[in-house]
Amino acid sequence: MSGIDVARIRADFPILKRTVRENKPLVYLDSGATSQKPFSVLDAEREFYETSNAAAHRGAHQLAEEATEAYESARAKIARFVGASPENIVFTKNATESLNLAAYAFSNATALASQGASVDPRFELKPGDSVVVTEMEHHANLVPWQEVCAKTGATLKWIPLTDDGRLDMSGLPDLIDSATKVVSVVHQSNILGTINPVAEIMDMAHAVGAVGVVDGCQSVPHMPVDVREIGADLLAWSGHKMLGPTGIGLLYGTAEILDSMPPFLTGGSMISTVEMERSTYAAAPAKFEAGVPMVAQAVGLGAAVDYLVNLGMQEVAEHELAMTEYSLKAITDLPGVRIIGPLDARNRGSAISFVVDGIHPHDVGQVLDNLGIAVRVGHHCAWPTCRRFAVPATTRISPYIYNDFRDIDAVAEGIVEAQRFFKVAP
Amino acid sequence: MSGIDVARIRADFPILKRTVRENKPLVYLDSGATSQKPFSVLDAEREFYETSNAAAHRGAHQLAEEATEAYESARAKIARFVGASPENIVFTKNATESLNLAAYAFSNATALASQGASVDPRFELKPGDSVVVTEMEHHANLVPWQEVCAKTGATLKWIPLTDDGRLDMSGLPDLIDSATKVVSVVHQSNILGTINPVAEIMDMAHAVGAVGVVDGCQSVPHMPVDVREIGADLLAWSGHKMLGPTGIGLLYGTAEILDSMPPFLTGGSMISTVEMERSTYAAAPAKFEAGVPMVAQAVGLGAAVDYLVNLGMQEVAEHELAMTEYSLKAITDLPGVRIIGPLDARNRGSAISFVVDGIHPHDVGQVLDNLGIAVRVGHHCAWPTCRRFAVPATTRISPYIYNDFRDIDAVAEGIVEAQRFFKVAP
Amino acid sequence: MSLESLYQDIIIDHYKNPRGRGLLQSPLGTAFHVNPTCGDEVNVQVATDAQGGLQIGYEGTGCSISQASASVLYELVQGLPASDAEKIRQAFVELMHSQGHAEPDEEVLGDGVAFVGVAKYPARIKCALLPWMAFQDAEIQGGLMPIADTIQG
Amino acid sequence: MSLESLYQDIIIDHYKNPRGRGLLQSPLGTAFHVNPTCGDEVNVQVATDAQGGLQIGYEGTGCSISQASASVLYELVQGLPASDAEKIRQAFVELMHSQGHAEPDEEVLGDGVAFVGVAKYPARIKCALLPWMAFQDAEIQGGLMPIADTIQG
Ligand SMILES: Cc1ncc(COP(=O)(O)O)c(C=O)c1O
Ligand SMILES: Cc1ncc(COP(=O)(O)O)c(C=O)c1O
Fold first, then answer.
1. pTM for the complete prediction?
2. Is the confidence at residue B236, as pLDDT, over 50?
3. Nearest residue CA, atom 14 of ligand 2?
4. What class is the C3-141 domain?
5. Within an 8 Å CB–CB cutoff, is residue D34 touching chain B?
6. A66 and A16, same structural domain?
7. Which of A18, C6, C13, C116 is surrounded by the most beta carbons within 10 Å?
């Protein structure tokens, strides 16, 4: 089917050997929520704890040196993975923190300016200014901007969707105008699967002097992403969706933008000097990494990057495309089942949401769960997108490198089984 | 020496078997920065990844149920550990985030109020209001409050120190007055070792209607801490200093205070409803836990709590006291060495900072490091405290449950060795 | 765990044929609850009839469990004095927290006994409880909650 | 790794007997650098003499490595043309990034060769570089930095 060997990959993931719901083999199709972890990631984390654990950047003894080296070499790997330099990569706890970090730059700058501090005017918001997102954002790239607007009086605007689940770009020239201070857009929708033309949108943002932010949670794990091609000022994503540990996220930022943003979390290790009455701050990325960092998780994520690089992100993307094409066909072939999101595999990821006539998505998910198939049900933290498509919720499959066509066949059979059970077979 | 069996404990910590700097056995005395981790913590985390890894609170399939259960039962253990209920415990990435969460409640409420939102007036700051800390705060409990003041025009005040490293309580009735909106105090100083009378200070805060915050980073791992006795509205600490994984911190809050605080990080899983233009928020603790959480780290921390409970926190505190008494004597016995911090073990923890005449603390630390002894050197993220005692930096030992008197003897010998090497032997 | 034990016929029947669904003319209390994890919604209203019996109105969207539970709620408490309804509510909450080990009393819970299998699925317990939590809130709002038990469940 | 290889006698000597320590009357550029991890501080000033040679002033507090490094910096570049000083600075930076494997050229680095052992201690490299970073900044500030190399190190 594609350049990667799923059977061999599966052997690297211990959890895939377990059974669920009375001895059903696990079919894990919820990687859009979080991916599973290969041995190499678990081993790297554990080895760090067993040999070099210490507070990175905080000591001069040998363990502290080793921990610092482990932490920074993980940063370098991750930077290389997206075509950036290590100084451009900030470690956070998850993509949600990364996006909040971006959003707080605006509310913090605005508050500091209100007390007379001099801030970069790009971050200072006032009534009349606008923040532009899309109607397919994950809550993590919507609610923080709502809060920024509530704190500054700026207005939230959004790019609407077409009926086939794409961005309606027609109104963009009016939406992104001189009042726009920031444009923040999801790269690949976690609910619709849509891959958005982010480079084009970033260009439009820059043309009006706005800061451009991309939510790469669902793109970075699934395709080659190069920050230089996207052109975003800031790119946020999570480690746990790309084979890495829980508890670590990433924010890429251009040197220029990271320098001009005020700090977010403040405290130890992000300072240059501290007196009782005032402090000065370190250069990025340290400026944004207050407190003892998630060193072990960074090391684990470094191993995850190695794993993906070793497979080849181009190969991962081809596998993704093959899975997408196969799944789209398998699901559209089923009577009484409707996909919410694009029906063609072009510019589309493998996360596929659907609804089954007469059965609530929860109940569909339950039937699949009983067959050992783990999918996600609900609004997928994209509630406004559900509203846009007039569904209360969806059932979503989101495969990854350890899934193959048989897993999709199992889903299709499960849907039929659900229709039979709930007596809605069309 | 005390009720805990150090030799047996040491066998549980794999890293303690390693050698450093050309085959010197590791003497780890930097637990104030971060503690080492026992097998049971590493095993718990790994087992979670190998059997139940999924996004907690985000799915209805069996793995998601198990992950949710693992996450919440860790919360319950941690709550019990400090005499709280699970609803009072918020998971963060580290104590620094916890303290920022507390501080941002004030700057966020102030900003929201400036746009006409109705907020709890306790959190709204204006010029003339004051924020009270101490002169022995870790940067994590100082810089966030400086930032709050910079954003709101409130004034930062602090409780000064006596020459023997205790809080100078004499001026407190003047310092904490009707203008005071928040009092945030470290429980046990990471640089001086001082244990502060936080219950008394919280009472004074409450008497003027101020919110009371305690930084428990160095107390919770080392002695029994019961939130009901401390009386703080908010208590922050880190998991990695109490045998737990990196990447997880805690914030305890009373139900009343957590309810009235605005959210901090926003996004998925912390909402009640979301529309494009507005959102409503879940009840605490979910309100403060946006995004996919550090589930594996919570599970590891739960195992760390089990480990400590099994030892008995009373026994841990007795060991701490024994180590403190022994270390104070061992260090004061050395000519040319001066302790920065209290000289008596009463209300004092085992973290001990010192300076050696004629040798910079860095160089002292380097000599110790070459002998295999890991200590911390520098300002320990408490730079203003160094200034108060007119030292540029200190060398600090910070023992824990896996250290015994021999480790302290090694330090004393190492100091003498440093004096010999740098030819300053008195 | 068979699907049949979770989705007993009674549940499917209530889901497909909800009893008494609809809103009241003049409710004394109304509570709208959502399950933020999945978006299930239910709106429960309470009033009293001339004899002091409870009048229930409800509407909602969601899965079979949450919607059937609302229908069963209606069936069980409609017309009852609030104190009797409260006993049923508590019995239902207890059943949901039984992890599937309870032997529910059909005398008290009627069709509610069919939810015994739900208690084995932690993620679905919230679905089953949704209307009952809203009911409790609506009663509190309408001043109809028997005093001693306002914090249970 | 013996202590002696890190703290060569030359380093201890510069630490205990700093050469040319003190500030300038009329500096062209001044840069105050701290190592935020440990609080080491150094203030470096630059000016030029009548022949265009560099004049260096400095002060600081910190460990033997950072303070000895400042003294060695003074000794090496005082009086030199900025372009010659820049070569020495680059050689010193390179030495510090050599992980202890370099064979430093005593012709160029003079007493600076004594820092070769420091390069094996990542946490101390920053100490050794501190005055050299400040020197670079002071030159930039004073307009004395040879153009082509302003971003190195
Ligand atoms: C007293 C005190 N407060 C706050 C902190 C910050 O903790 P963390 O770095 O884990 O956020 C520390 C430790 O670094 C500490 O010792
Ligand atoms: C598109 C998108 N954005 C943001 C997030 C938030 O990521 P996290 O929960 O790891 O912070 C997710 C996943 O939950 C996502 O799919």
1. 0.96
2. yes
3. A33
4. alpha beta
5. no
6. no
7. C6
